[in-house]
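Record 4-hydroxybenzoate polyprenyltransferase, 308 aa.
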Amino acid sequence: MTGSDAAGDRDGDDADRAGDGAAADLADHLRYLLVLSRPRFWLYLAGPVAVGVAYGIDGVDGLFTPTTLALAGYFLVPANVFLYGVNDVFDADVDAHNPKKGDREARWRGNRLALLAVVVAAALGVGTFAVTPPVAWPFLAGFFVLAAGYSVPPVRFKTTPFADSVSNGLYVLPGAAAYATVAGTAPPTFALAGAWLWTMGMHTFSAIPDVEPDREAGIRTTATLLGESRTYAYCLACWVAAAVAFAAVDVRLGALLGVYPVFVTWVAVSGVAVDRAYWWFPALNTVVGALFTMGGLWRIYPVWEALG
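=>
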């Protein structure tokens, strides 16, 4: 082998190693973006879209259309990248004290690829206005305004007690937009109010494990203001009110929402660690959301017909 051949082999090996390193870096970045988007919570935005479509359509042919699939696809992943990416950008210092970060959730790395992903997710969100009718636009606009305002100064709702809770109605707005898109009108007022109250309870309950890290960081939230025991009472009140509001639409929906007051009462009196119970909610919400959706579908395609 000549010297030039050996040099060529070394150059080839270096190129292979560089290629492997680049591939490994890309895979690492993609894994990070996946964790950043909170896969456990993907259905918190996409689920309401399914519910909104199920109750807004008047026939099964309206269930899977390019528009409904586009909304479901956007709110399943890109919207979560936007929502949690913005949150993590402006919470980088606070999250240094948060025990959830680095375990089941990612700490913001501040790299360009992650920032680009958040920007692209926001740009894709603009596209949702192009595929929906004007009646859905206020709900879409509300989602993006609240999603940004929750974390971005100077508004930063998350650092103002009760505003942090109320602003989390943003989670129901994709469902309201989906309903308006397929039905051509806004969703029932009591349904929207009930869903909003439900999200207020959900958000405030999820903030209980963050009470100490938030206090250490000087952040004021509904949970840090009320303390753990009174926060349980606040969540209970929100969820009871949500159940009553949904009962005004359909008593069966109100009964289904009744599981949440029972759950928070059990957590409060049983001694179960709240940071453990917090991670049970994705499963509970998935079951309740599925039953909600099936209820809407059975409205247009009764279960006895499906079984018969």
